Amino acid sequence: MKTLKFKTNIKCGGCVAQVTPHLNNVDGVRQWQVDTASPDKVLTVEFEDVEPRRIVEAVQTAGFKAEKL
């Protein structure tokens, strides 16, 4: 399993709820979380065999930004 971190603008629990169905629907994503207390709002994703751009696209589809750290 691989882990990647992304800087996002996901700020609160409501934002997390909004992005949840999008990230949960990416095949290969096993687990993810957002550290909303971090200044960079870091999204940590554990996955198998997923291109990082698919994770970024899922976050963008939910209306947020994500860039790989």
Let me know the number of strands.
Answer: 4
User: Which structural class best describes the helix and strand composition?
Assistant: alpha+beta
Mean pLDDT: 96
Cα shape: globular
Overall number of structural domains: 1
CATH architecture: 2-Layer Sandwich
Overall CATH class: Alpha Beta
State the separation between the terminal residues, measured CA to CA: 18 Å
- Sequence of secondary-structure elements: EHEEHE
The fraction of residues assigned to DSSP E strands is 25-35%
- What profile does the largest beta sheet have? 4 strands, antiparallel
What ranges have pLDDT less than 50 throughout 5 or more consecutive residues? none
Report the CATH topology name.
Answer: Alpha-Beta Plaits
Number of helices: 2
* Radius of gyration based on Cα positions: 11 Å
Helix proportion:
25-40%
Characterization of this structure:
There is one protein chain. A four-stranded antiparallel sheet has the order 2-3-1-4, with helices on one face. The chain is α+β, with helices and mostly antiparallel strands and 69 residues long. The mean pLDDT is 96. The longest helix has 12 residues. It has a single domain, classed as Alpha-Beta Plaits. It is built from two helices and four strands; from the N terminus they run βαββαβ. 32% of the residues lie in helices and 33% in strands.
